[in-house]
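--- STAGE predict ---
source: upstream dedup step, 1 unique chain passed
mode: sequence only
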Amino acid sequence: MTETAETKRRYYRKKKSKSKKKTSRKKSKSNETKRNFDILKKKKIFTKEEKKILDIGKTAYNKALTHYFIPSLPDPDLIFDYSKTKGFFIDTFSWRVTLNLANTPFLHLDQEFLDYFFSLSLHEIAHYVYCPYDNLTNLRLLAAAIKGGVSKNHAPMIVNIFSDLLIDNRTHRKFKDLMNWELQITAEQALQESKRNKLSKLWKLLVRCYEILWDIEILPKTMISDELNKIAGKTCDIILKNYENESLWEKKVQKIAKILKDLLKEECKLANTTENMEGKNRSKNGDKQGNPFSIPNDVLETFGDISEVKNIDMIKGGDSGNKKSRGPNEISEIENAAEELAQEIDCKTFLDVLNLYGLGSLNEKLGIWYRSRAKNLLRFNYYESKPSGAIPLYPETWRIGDSLEELDPVQTLLASPSIIPNITTRKWSHQEGPSHRISKELPDMMIVIDSSGSMDWDFKRKKISGRYHISLLAAFAALHYAINNGSHVSAINFSNRVKKTTWTNNFYKIEQILLSYIGQGTVLPTKTMIQMAKSADRPSLIILISDLELYNWENALKTFKILMQRGHTLIAFFIDGDEELLEQEDFQELIARGAKFYCVHKMKDLIGLVISEVQEVYTNL
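--- STAGE serialize ---
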């Protein structure tokens, strides 16, 4: 390279570097300006008119609270967002109501503002006191919508439509004139704006539902097609039938999903174009690529974002989703609800529902599912005998020299009013009662599980299946019993590589190791097993689940012998194993030392075998 060329390279490199620095300073100034704007926005000085509306909003909200007998809700978030990116909603995790006081129709009188905010507050608070009421109900309703045939991203729309119609119809029975007026003025504003923009079918359907439920007329009859009128009629029939029976909510949501699924596909498509993604067409729910749904503007203006799962942000940022803020085995309220839901639905629907909730990674969601399914599969106790104490049998003579504490004054006076030592004095004769068993500390447990390619695992269909699926159920059952009884557990997941966790009583860590499916070759991690055994505080029970297709059988047998010599108990379950292999000298030597090996040919038998063998070990130690 010539000197001139090198000089030019240095010059342009230096010039480019300076250019980058200038750009970063500009960005820095831009960010600083934005931060200052945000601070000014937060510290905004309200105008006289805004102060008045703010006071009216507080009065209306407190009035609504009084109607519901002052439920324990946090203070509302009363805001003025003139961009209307926020409206009126309640966060179903924190249960905090947000009222955008700038997002109102054309009102003039103070009483009109008071009535309008009162009506909206009644609606939002009703989500807390009535529907969905809690996270378990919300999860169940989302699952019911998916069962009704809608996509997982349309499921929140079905649930929101159902709960809004249910709540508003309930409120309408007490505040008929108020609810009619509030819907009338809101709909009129949309009708006026429809001169510029055509009203959507979904908006017409929702308004028509309210017309049927409340027996009022808002829209011109020519605006509603026979098809929409038929769909609205069916939806309202479902809402009104056995109206007060909350146990029918899931069935009702499922039926409404079947009725509305085609309309939602037509009206709420994925927004792939820039035009559809602008402004109010944005939605928090989308496909795998994050493409948002195009919710019609008129629906957003009148009924809010019906696609929103309102507590998703709180889960990601709140205490419920923050594992650092809780104990090692502390389960959050939402996880408890999810565990209960997992008992009721298939794995695919369960994962879809938790995806909507934004609850953790795939492995964390699968951990909740397996934890729920493995509950109570394995119940065993480790007992030892203890005497129960002396039992009184019959009174006998108390003599001088006996312990004074043994003298029974009542029995003595019953024998004779004159107390004569050695003659009328009495005591009780005792006998040791039968021994009883008390629970002892359980030994620790090492779970070694094979996740090679031959241990197949399919959880993407409605029916979860595979060798690894059954193995996980057995492993989870043993894990949670041991943890719940104060023992420590270690886990080794192996294929052509190893994933492990040291001895711990934190079942989250163990679950994540067990759920880390590898799907390659099968090499038993002999060194890891020996190292884990060395670090144990006491001899442990080792449970090995594999399909017996090991590449390192010789090292495996040597490792089994070393572990047995050090006092550990070994029970191995070989899926589709060959019984003739167990007749070999090495296996017979291990069996003579107390090891047990099972060849499992029917996967449904694996869980029962693990349960019975582990139970026998713990009850006989």
